[in-house]
Amino acid sequence: MNEARKKLIAGNWKMNGNRELLDVFAQQLNVPENVDVLLCVPAPYLALASNAKFKVGAQDCSAHEKGAHTGDVSVAMLQDMSVGYVILGHSERRQDHSECNDTVAAKVAQVMHSNITPILCVGEPLEVREAGDVFSYVQAQIDAVLSACDETFFDKVVIAYEPIWAIGTGKTATPEQAQEVHHFIRSYLVQKSPLAQKMRILYGGSMNASNAEKLLAQADIDGGLIGGASLKVDDFNIICQAAS
Ligand code: PGA
Q1: Structural domain 10-60+72-228+239-243, CATH architecture
Q2: Among this protein's residues, is 162 annotated catalytic?
Q3: What distances in angstroms separate CA 23 from CA 42, 85, 242, one per listed residue?
Q4: What spacing in Å lies between the alpha carbon of 88 and ligand 1's midpoint?
Q5: How many CA atoms lie within 13 A of 31 on its CB side?
Q6: Closest to 73 (Cα-Cα) out of 148, 64, 153
Q7: Which residue out of 92, 99, 162, 182 is catalytically annotated?
Q8: What does the alpha-carbon distance between residue 92 and residue 112 come to, in Å, rounded to a whole number?
């Protein structure tokens, strides 16, 4: 485990939760001192979620600065609500909203010079894994973003490796499978900048109260992006504890 990289446990509520659940988390979440804990809530709850206990993140933002983009939320608006993080390029956005690598890159570039930390999601579908092409697929996702950003990328971005076949399916990558890709991502980025040694690379995909400890013990796994298990405070507390 690398002591220089503080673990980050990020809940991704997706389009779930409500005011009541937010209150439950505000009251019952236990945040270990040596772990950063973040909840990425749906946009309408961002202002309500502001809390001294945990950090608050959004699940997407616009690639545009402002203007005629009905329904979209800008980086400046997130900053106005003191949002600290934003998930970008989640596979569900790539799929449901046809976000391609270039769109994701434009979004990351938009966030880059704000005080918000982008969490860039990458990860392969099952057929890519079965064809043995995981590294080149993930590399292409990262390259698109790198080409839209300057050196700040290495200082600022958190990467989340989320194999699509493991998201919401109950099929977790084994700790070894996850570590293999995390190690690839880090080595690839370190070749470009030594700053990448300090970047946090999260694992996401059916991380839960029972498998978190083994995943988080891997050398290049610096935290988790957690969907389903972030909706139950008891399970989420166990995962936060496993990171401490
Ligand atoms: P999951 O979702 O934990 O429910 O698999 C993870 C994610 O999509 O970020």
Answers
A1: Alpha-Beta Barrel (3.20)
A2: yes
A3: 15, 20, 23
A4: 14
A5: 19
A6: 64
A7: 162
A8: 22
Separation of alpha carbons 146 and 127, rounded Å: 25
Q: How far apart are CA 106 and CA 127, in angstroms?
A: 27
Q: Which helix (H) or strand (E) holds 103?
A: helix 101-112
Closest ligand 1 atom number to CA of residue 91: 8
Q: Is 134 left (phi over 0), alpha (psi -120 to 50) or beta?
A: alpha
Per-residue pLDDT of the chain (244 residues; tens, 9 = 90+): 454 799 999 999 999 999 999 999 999 999 999 999 999 999 999 999 988 789 999 999 999 999 999 999 999 999 999 999 999 999 999 999 999 999 999 999 999 989 999 999 999 999 999 999 999 999 999 999 999 999 999 999 999 999 999 998 988 899 999 999 999 999 999 999 999 999 999 999 999 999 999 999 999 999 999 999 999 999 999 999 999 9
**Residue 168 CB less than 6 A away from ligand 1:** yes
Tokens of 158: 């958190």
Q: Whose CA is nearest to atom 2 of ligand 1?
A: 227
Amino acid letter at 195? L
Residue carrying the six token digits 């079965």? 130
Polymer length in residues for the chain = 244
Q: Where are the domains of the chain?
A: 10-60+72-228+239-243
What pTM was estimated for this model as a whole? 0.97
Residue 50 is predicted with a pLDDT of 84
Among the options 90, 99, 124, 182, which is catalytic?
Answer: 90
